[in-house]
Write a structure and sequence with these properties.
The chain is mainly alpha-helical and about 425 residues long. The protein has seven helices and nine strands; from the N terminus they run ββααβββαββββαααα. It has two domains: about 110 residues, no CATH class; about 250 residues, Arfaptin homology (AH) domain/BAR domain (Substrate Binding Domain Of Dnak, Chain:A, Domain 2), CATH 1.20.1270.60. A three-stranded antiparallel beta sheet has the order 3-4-5, with helices on one face. About 60% of the residues lie in helices and about 10% in strands. It starts with a strand and ends in a 12-residue tail after the last helix. This is Growth arrest specific 7.
């Protein structure tokens, strides 16, 4: 029976050749060798212990005999620098050295190779983990969440370097700047309408004042009537432009400002929420890195203590190894816990990014549609104003067509004549 002990990310596991480790069972070429030995021993019977002792150890392996009898086989090829990203084999407590004959110092177990390959398919950028595309032939390609729609939720996940290249801007910040620019444009449009209203109000005021002017008030006849109607049309036109300015304020400017205020509140809410989640993600990532370094330090300490097994006092050093193993196991547990917290934070950030991106997309559509409708209302009111203005000048046109100099002369003569008798020659 072969007794085996290994330390993995979740702690130290112990098993034997009759029972595979749980979970996952025995892994790697080392454990395949154990299976082969177990089968050969079952067929040929147990090998004498003296014969086992004569089996040479492969390069990079050392054997230490504990006071209780079991041998400890240590792989020193890592030189105290374990890979914290994969399970580590710290200490093997077995009775047969021949089980190590298939393990060369440069080999990596299939489990380690697979984990390493999986690790190389991902990359972390600014605390966010992304897949590296086209690393393996069978790697599934990510599909867009909303294909053929150019949706915000598909194109703003990575950070973007600023033009100077010194810092990076989060993808959400790029989205947010687009919305803030839209808010500013809406504000400027409202200011434009406000200036248009002022012009209309001033124009109406001046027209009304002009309509009361006494200029040419003494014109008479049909021409005088046309002139008087023209002055009245100025007053009517002033009323039309005043109504136009009032409608612009109520139906165009006010909706623009109201929507802008609501838009601003929505942006502020989403801004703080996503920024807080990104900060949490960065904090979790820092925790993972700290835990990863702690695990590497603990594993290095464990291997150093294991390699020094034949130098110090055996009993005392075995206690040191047990403590180091417990600390390494705890560090592995801490790393797994921090990775879990990081993944949860990233998942939460991902979900909120999708939700918020779609909300910003909805707000942008609403903003553009609302402005379009308001500008159409502006043109409608302008057409109405033109129609009303046209109606004010139509009577003037009619009267101008009726202007008759002969009729004016008749009317004037009738009113102002001084006598019909003409002078005649004087008699002698």
């Amino acid at each position: 029976l072969l007794s085996i002990e290994r330390t993995v990310l979740t702690g130290t596991q112990t098993g034997d050749s009759d029972n595979e480790f749980q979970p996952g069972g025995l892994e790697g070429s080392f454990f395949e060798t154990l299976r082969e030995i177990r089968l050969s021993q079952s067929a040929a019977g147990p090998a004498p212990r003296e014969e086992m002792k004569r089996v040479p150890l492969p390069h990079g392996w050392r054997c230490h005999v504990s006071p209780k009898g079991p041998r400890n086989y240590v792989n020193t090829a890592s030189n105290g620098k374990p890979d914290t990203a994969v399970p580590q084999l710290h200490l093997f407590d077995v009775d047969d050295a021949s089980c190590l004959s298939q393990q060369s110092p440069g080999n990596t177990s299939p489990a380690k190779r697979q984990t390493k390959e999986m690790k190389e398919t991902k990359i972390t950028i600014n605390c966010v983990t992304f897949p590296i595309p086209n690393v393996t032939p069978d790697q599934a390609e990510q599909q867009l969440l909303k294909p053929n729609e150019w949706s915000y939720c598909d194109y703003f996940w990575t950070d973007k370097k600023d033009p100077q290249g010194t810092t990076s801007v989060a993808g959400f910040e790029v989205l947010l700047q687009k919305q803030l620019k839209g808010k500013q444009m809406q504000k400027e449009m409202a200011e434009f309408i406000r200036e248009r209203i002022k012009i209309e109000e001033e124009y109406a005021k001046n027209l009304s004042k002009l309509s009361q002017s006494p200029l040419a008030a003494q014109e008479e006849g049909t021409l005088g009537e046309a002139w008087a109607q023209l002055k009245r049309s100025c007053h009517d036109e002033a009323e039309v432009h005043l109504k136009f300015s009032n409608k612009l304020q109520c139906e165009v400017e006010k909706p623009l400002l109201t929507f802008r205020d609501n838009f601003k509140k929505e942006l502020k809410k989403y801004d703080h929420h996503i920024i807080d989640l990104r900060k949490q993600l960065a904090s979790r990532f820092a925790g993972v890195e700290k835990a990863r370094k702690a695990l590497a330090d603990r594993q290095k300490d464990l291997e150093v203590k294991t390699q020094q097994l034949d130098i110090k006092h055996m009993n005392k050093h075995e206690e040191d190894i047990k403590k180091a193993r417990r600390k390494s196991t705890q560090a592995g547990d801490d790393l797994m816990h921090n990775v879990d917290l990081y993944n949860r934070a990233q998942s939460k950030w991902f979900e909120e990014m999708v939700t918020t991106s779609l909300e910003l997309e909805r707000l942008e559509v609403e903003r553009v549609e609302m402005i379009r409708q308001n500008l159409r209302q502006y043109t409608t009111l302008r057409h109405e104003t033109d129609m009303f203005n046209q109606s004010t000048v139509e009577p003037v046109d009619q009267l101008l067509q009726s202007v008759d100099p002969a009729r004016d002369r008749e009317l004037w003569v009738r009113e102002h004549k001084t006598g019909e008798l003409r002078p005649v020659d004087m008699d002698i």
